[in-house]
Structure prediction request, 279 residues.
Amino acid sequence: MAMQDDIMDLSRLNDSEREILRLLAQGHTAKSVADLTGRSVGSVNERLRDARRKTGVSSSRALSRAFVAQENRDDLIDIDPTEGPASDLPEAVGPSRSALFRGVAMTIVAAIALSAGAYLLQNAPSAPKAPVEESYSSPAKDDPLLAGSFFGPMPSDRYVMLRKEKRDAPWADETEKALVASYAVLLQKYGVRQPVRALCGKMTCEVAMKLNLSDDKTTRLTRDLQGQDLSDALAKIGLTFSTGTFGGPGKGYIHSAYLLRISAISAAPAPTGQAPESP
Prediction:
């Protein structure tokens, strides 16, 4: 049965449960949430169980997505409580003559001011136009792993696209495990044992990591992350590389990779009017 987040009562959730649900909705596991919040994995799971009990939702990931969706919706419709309602009652009596006179006078003054302003604008020298610079706001600005790492539209688009996809749970669960294992093999060469974060939807997957390595190691790791060995390992689990980021702000090394499901690409229909390629 589909979960109706619009009627779910989230008021009983405490601050700790809300924090954990936000991180879970971003793709974290109980282990990475524990590392980020300084709690044990058991403590994180206990708070997730309490949150499920309070809301009656059986899945922690489903609850986290519903929680974030409802929280975002509440932000959009929030109304300033200090702003009083405007009165819609007509005046009991008509305006006085003095009020009418003031209104006419103000209208005349405003017309004169507008005419003068238009004249000055027409005769004023035009100011040089500043060059237009394209800027892209990062949708991952609050993501603990990827904040500050997106420098263009493509990774940002993939980040948003993945989180809008309807999750293919059986495929996504298995593929996430395979991705973590594949990247673990690569990272062992650099003495890195912390797991990467893997998140899959229906046809898109994301891998994200944040490391502290020497300049020499980051150079070699960047080359390996784009190398044939990793591409072959990804192809074995049915994925192909789409786009990614390497580096990031400060001294930390941030990497994200966006991968596409090969079977979904192969099954996509050819554009109208275009003949299929010959084998």
Notes: Residues 213 and 253 are 7 Å apart (CA to CA).
